[in-house]
Amino acid sequence: MAIRTSENLESIIPSEQEIKLAQQFSKILSGVSLKKAKSVDILLEGVRPLKGVTLPLSVFKLLMMALTQMAKGNAVMLLPVNAELTTQKAADLLNVSRPYLIRLLEENKIPFRKVGTHRKILLQDIMLYKLTIDKARLKILDELTQEAQNLKMGY
């Protein structure tokens, strides 16, 4: 497992073996019914003496989401919602250049604060902006698709 760290943010990049294990575990765990559960008890093997732990259901669901992504070979990063990002990290999340992100900040399209000369952006603000532009893109794509169908362009 490769762990990349930057500014106290860790991303876990699964190895081929970890991808296979994640695929096996996610298949097994996805079949477990948790409709009335408030917590999940897990027995830790390989620990002497054997120990069990109780996880809140929300933590178990988070673990399942991480396993699902790792099973697909995706890197996984856990960030608190109130995390503050640098302009470079925020640009990376939006898949844009840092200068373009700074222009968005200066145009007040994304809230930020300055710490000295550095801009800090809340993760939740970046994710809200991303959701907003994704919705706008989908709307435009739907309109273009509808127009292509009206013109009988074969879409």
List the defining traits of the structure above:
155 residues, alpha+beta, Multidrug-efflux Transporter Regulator, Chain: A, Domain 2, 3-stranded antiparallel beta sheet, 5 helices, 48% helix, disordered N terminus
Main sheet strand line-up: 1-2-5
Number of strands: 8
> What best-fitting shape do the alpha-carbon axes yield?
extended
Give the domain tally.
2
Return the string of H and E elements: EEHEEHEEHHEEH
Q: What Rg, in angstroms, do the CA atoms define?
A: 21 Å
Helix content: 40-55%
Strand content: 15-25%
Low-confidence stretches: 2-7
Largest β sheet strand count, sense and barrel closure: 3 strands, antiparallel
Ordered list of secondary-structure elements with their pairings:
Layout: E1 2-6, E2 9-13, H1 16-30, E3 39-44, E4 51-56, H2 57-71, E5 76-77, E6 84-85, H3 87-94, H4 98-106, E7 113-115, E8 118-122, H5 123-150
Helix pairs in contact: 1-2, 3-4
Brief rundown of the structure:
The protein has 155 residues and is of the alpha+beta class. It is built from five helices and eight strands. It folds into two domains: 2-77, no CATH class; 84-150, Multidrug-efflux Transporter Regulator, Chain: A, Domain 2, CATH 1.10.1660.
